[in-house]
Amino acid sequence: MKVLLSSLILFLTLQALSQQDKYFVHEALSKASYLEDFNQLVDSIQTYHPQPYEFISKHNFDQFINLKKSIITDSTTIGEFSWICNAIASKVGCLHTYTSAGNILNFSQENLFPVNVRYIDSKLYVINTYKPNNELKLGVEILKINGIDVLDLKTKIGAHISSDGYNKKHTAARTNMSFGYFCAYQLNFPKVYKVEIRENGVKKEVLLNKESPDNTKQTLNSQTKNLDFSLKKHENLAILTVKSFVYYNDQLPIFKSFIDSCFNQIELHDIGNVVIDLRNNGGGDPYCAVHLLQYISDEPFRYYKKGTTTFYKDLEEEIVPFKNNFSGKLQVLINSLCCSTTGHLCSILKHKNLGTLIGSETGATYSCNANTINFELKNTGINASVATKTYQTDVTGFVKNRGIIPDYQMSRSLNQILDEKDVEIKKAIELILDE
What we know:
By secondary structure, the chain is an alpha/beta fold. The protein has helices at residues 6-18, 31-48, 58-70, 78-90, 150-158, 168-177, 179-186, 216-221, 252-268, 286-296, 341-351, 414-418, 423-434, and strands at residues 23-24, 98-100, 105-106, 117-120, 123-126, 141-145, 148-149, 194-199, 202-207, 227-232, 237-242, 273-277, 329-334, 356-359, 367-370, 373-376, 383-386, 389-392, 408-409. A hairpin with a 6-residue loop joins β16 (373-376) and β17 (383-386).
């Protein structure tokens, strides 16, 4: 099952930056047009979503709807309205129910917050050199942006990001991944960005130069290969990287062939330790996850719980591991951007004690809603997606409002972030060497 994550956010951002004949963010439509689209979105959620009131009561949802509807006027901009739609969709508590205005909004890179930053708990730090102003040095703490406290800003942004069961770890990870984009939306694409910083105990304000944005580095260059494999024979170690399961239909054989070749080499060289890196894997085809499981499971398993699916009935039946399945020491790296199918996979790994999970709480769990219907709102053209089916893996002992908790929970300090230290892979190697 697919989910909106880094690749999709990047696509929508670049789409908004490049296409013409769109609305400028501060253009306004009529209140009547907005309300018709607003009602279309709400009606679609209530009609098609299988569990719209699982994480919020109907009464509280209706109250929230009425509150948001009351702030729409003829002067509401298209940028503000699209942000309202995000809030409505995210209130369902479903990762696969969301809206996006990247297809209709016309804005440039200069509209985005121009500094690469990272939240560490409640504090916000500069994590890349900002060349237009040498006052924003690496590691400088930002206290406010345009007069808004950064913790308040984080909370407000998080309320507009769809997540399963209001998964706070996931919304925090998404906020960090695309802060420049979300910050611009929350502040309604301001003409200037003024930050209050604290350096060596001294507070001061800095006006940012938006004509030389520096935030493309993180967004554009952080893309990695979806599938990768390295064999370290002398260390008796193999590292398998799987950043995506989006290999549907005629693409599925590509994924299977890659996984087959990896485990054939592991068997050929009698490798005793395997690290599978699932970090940032936003999900995809469950058949990909099942194929991987057949190489690392030591007993037959069911993927989906009996009677819970419509399109994957064969995955409710008992699945037999491959004869050349891996029987050595397994470490699995996870984080809060592991979603959808990856959350399902991790629930089975945890339930069956397959390997050691290292990292941070996943952004999904054993149950999620998917099989989205995709449509445009009638007047604005905003893209909307609403989940229509619920999928649950054949596990017990998990809750729906938390992701899968790793055996070793890892976090990065500011210095580790600045030094680009991979603390999860380091921990995996330590565990291997200790055995």
